[in-house]
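User: Fold this; tokens only.

Assistant: Input:
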Amino acid sequence: MGYGKIRQKRFLLAFCIICLLGPLLAGCIFDETGSLRLTVPAVAAGEIQKMLGEGFREYEVKPELYFDGHSLAYDSAEDVYYITQNMGDGFFSGVLKSSEGRLYWQKDRYFTEFADALAKGHLFSLYCIDEDTKNWCRYRVVFSGMPIMVIETQDGGMIRDDTCDGEMRLFDLRFPGREYVSASCQTNIRGGTSRGFAKKGYKLTLDDKQSLLGMRRDEDWILAALYDDHGLIHNKFSYDVWRDIAGSNLVKKDGGTTMEYVELFCNDTYLGVYGLIERIDAKELSLGETEDILYKCYGRELPEESLDWIPVLDKAYEIKYPAEEDLANWQPLQEYLEVFTDKDGIADYEQAVSLLNMENAVDHNLFIMLSYGCDNNRRKNTFFLAEWGGNANPGYTMIKIPWDCNATWGNFWRRGEEFNNTIYEPVRITDPNLWSEDMKALFLCRPDEIGELMRRRWSELRRDILSQERLVAMLDGEFSYLHGSGAYDRNYRLWPNGTAYWDDRYIYEYVEGRLAYLDDYFETPWLDETPALDY
């Protein structure tokens, strides 16, 4: 057969396909290369009404909607379905189907305004029409630029204090091959003070290890409600800054945690924006079969009993690793506390220094001072890793890792009209009174030596890791993501706590002012401004 006849047959085949699919593709949205963005045709409102001729009736139960083969997230209170998108793509994508009938988008100019549609949480109208059964229905659909997690409990109830079984589904289009992840799971409410909040935080345990949102492969996760993290920014920004600081030192086990945002649904109920967080544990710190001991401090005050604290230390601390109970595992923490909480100060400087990984101690102190971690400096919300030195260097040195950083970057912890409120206070920009207790004690013992360590490391970090340009760019990126995804506004419509006084500009004001203040503070006069010990 000649080439001309082959080409003619191909043309006729293409023409037939166009004739068959043309009505379906009319009004679909294409990108600049001509690639189809949506698999459902967009039809004018008038055309949809023509389709709904005589005898059509609404479905008693709407057909199930599937995105890339999986059931959509749904909020029954607002009667809205949610579809996640990759903000970085700049166009709509994904395969949308229903269990019955044929789907049609109602034409909408926001189909050509991808970024605005996401940022504004624009409601699209999607119709399902079954010409055979004469049934139809209308769905209200929102596209989100944030990953969506759905938890369906086995009994259909909301997540509670006692553990409940269920199924976790996660949609995230940013990672090819991992766009959809599902697993059987167990969930329960977690937290101390935060249990009293209207918006609850949760523990999530998967039956199988999964890598979620590009983070480590694991089965144990935390869903932080961020209810008292006004602006939704303080925890994530803190974790990211600390990881950058720790990543620039030579300490191997102080990297801290990682957090990513999700919009969370449970049993057809929208719960808002959550922080999905890796747990700080033996896996995160690569403890393996080491003789290291990991403690978590959850209480601000130490027991009043004498220095024989081992039987009562669990009133303020818990041992996270190893799992086996052994009184001997409390001894490194007891020794550390005996030295660094003595109201008379440090008696033996060399012994005190030997109990700390000094590189970590300096970095942790700088982080607390920069971020004004007012709920972290007195041991609370801190993980303490007692690292074993090995046979060649027997003994433990303490490494500190910050945790739960909502009261940071100018947001000061205080009791207000709402319990455990955190409100921005500009006065914190120029407040020198925030040293970690161990470094404060060392400084009061050897001000010149400790002062020089602090000054030198601050100068080093300011060249890159803590440059104003870099920190502002990090904030810009987070706020662009939160607002651009549309999730920020949805969260605060549901949970308005803090909106009466929070403004995104506050954290920029604090960062820029605090950096300038500490630049001066670490030069000459700062030595005289450090307050005395106040255990």
